[in-house]
Specification:
By secondary structure, the protein is an alpha/beta fold. The chain has one domain: Rossmann fold. Helices cover 30% and strands 17% of the residues. It contains seven helices and ten strands. The strands form two sheets. Strands 1-10-9-6-2-3-5 form a seven-stranded parallel beta sheet, sandwiched between helices. Helix 1 crosses helix 2. The longest helix has 18 residues. It binds 2-amino-2-deoxy-6-O-phosphono-alpha-D-glucopyranose. 2-amino-2-deoxy-6-O-phosphono-alpha-D-glucopyranose binds next to helix 5.
């Protein structure tokens, strides 16, 4: 696992956009895995700017990590809505090539199976962008999620519900379940870039990088991935030993 420590959030966003840009240049039909939450917002802003300067997404395909269970795509807190607003409507990606789990499929098991099939049919994810939860979750794989898990309907930890309440009017509006790629789905991606900023992520980052590889801290599994880069700012790196 490689770690790039940069000064601040702006530098994370630019470095992450650099990785995406290089991957897209090398493979215009890139299969790109995307994340939501606050962390990748700056990277999306940067990608939009670069698209305005000529970066071409016309042949790319995207797969998002997760979606809240029970939220339709027009719900303002859904990840469908987020992706549309923060990226898709600003770039030249073909909407038919953007995949996000359908949070209102009445048969979530079928949805999960289909999502895995769609990823396989697309040839697998070339580059996956990840954030990290304060409890070490990746996607919506909460502590205890099995390393062998594929896309599934998962329960959210109370800590995650609380952390994500800021995107909803009231705490009790936050869904308690989500459809999320599993740890195994994430580990199958050819390349992974995890982004983290801020002092509130310092514990999760240091445990993910230096702690034992354990299902209790989902991001620790990334220590076993052959091509994974953490791009973090100084605040998120505060609990790492200085080298
Ligand atoms: C959310 C998402 C994750 C995200 C994480 C961190 O619950 N499901 O994919 O990486 O929590 O969010 P943030 O970037 O807002 O801190």
């Amino acid at each position: 696992m490689r770690v790039k420590i940069v000064k601040d959030y702006k530098a994370i966003s630019e470095a992450a956009a650099d990785v995406v840009e290089a991957a897209l240049k090398g493979k215009p039909d890139l299969v790109l895995g995307l994340a939501t939450g606050s962390t990748p917002l700056g990277m999306y802003e940067e990608l939009i700017k670069r698209h305005q300067g000529g970066m071409d997404f016309s042949k790319a395909t995207t797969f998002n990590l997760d979606e809240y269970f029970g939220l339709s795509s027009d719900h303002q807190a859904s990840y469908h809505y987020y992706m549309e607003e923060q990226l898709f409507r600003h770039i030249n990606i073909d909407p038919a090539n953007t995949y996000i789990p359908n949070g209102i499929n009445p048969d979530p098991m079928e949805e999960c199976k289909n999502y895995e099939t769609q990823m396989k049919t697309a040839g697998g994810i070339d580059l996956q962008i990840l954030g990290i939860g304060t409890n070490g979750h990746i996607g919506f794989n909460e502590p205890g999620a099995p390393f062998g898990g594929t896309t599934s309907l998962v329960d959210l930890a109370q800590e995650t519900v609380n952390a994500n309440a800021r995107f909803f009017q009231k705490l009790d509006e936050v869904p308690r379940q989500a459809i999320s790629m599993g740890i195994k789905s994430i580990m199958n991606c050819a390349e992974i870039v995890l982004l983290a900023n801020g002092a509130h992520k310092a514990d999760a980052v240091s445990q993910a990088l230096l702690g034992p590889v354990t299902e209790k801290l989902p991001a620790s599994v990334l220590q076993l991935h052959p091509n994974c880069l953490f791009i973090i700012d100084e605040a998120a790196a505060a609990k790492l030993p200085i080298t």
